[in-house]
Design goal:
Largest sheet: 3 strands, antiparallel
Strand content: 5-15%
Number of strands: 6
Oligomer: single chain
Structural class: mainly alpha
Strand order of the largest sheet: 1-5-6
Number of helices: 5
Radius of gyration: 36 Å
Length: 226
Amino acid sequence: MSRASATVFGEAVNGALPERPAHEDPVDGSTLVAVTHEAAEDAEREAREEREARALREREAEEDAEPSTPAALVVIGVMAALGLGLVALAAGVVIAGDHASRALAVLLTGATTLLMVWVTIGAAAVPWNIWYLPRHGVTVETVPTLIRGQVRYGYTATDGKVRRAPHDEQGTPYDIAYHLKHPARVVVCRGLDAYVWKRLFRSAVSAALTALLGWGTLGLALPAFA
């Protein structure tokens, strides 16, 4: 290309460009570049990953949450009623004019009694489920299942949700039985063996201790009303 051709081309290009006022600073493109420090990017990325992990944990917790069974709601209601009754009994001891130390003893003994009531109900529920679920529930065989990144024995209930089996026994799969309406209520099908009789014995011992503690609580409180 000759010098003349280059000059004509340059003048044509410059003429097509908009003119910049003389008082404005020349633009070199630096204003179009965004400078972000690497540390700030790392912090932002870590914060985003933490938010995503927290959201995932909350979603998994919501998915794992099981609705309470009617029996569990009844037990909670009974325990709440017994707790209110215990507080009313201790308040009655104080109102009756007895020492506050007696009311404190009633509260401590009664709280221990409520704890034993909870333990007794839980201990009695195990042999009941072992007898009831294999006869009136759904019996399936466990299969190795990937649960939260680990291979565990699990089962798929009628609602399509994969749940972890009660035990992670190694070797061959085993049968479990779960409640049709409450699939999270599950037991291993083992029959009425020594394990069940041991559980029944523990339930009987817990019931006896609960009765003794309840009798002791009333024995502490009733003299104040005499």
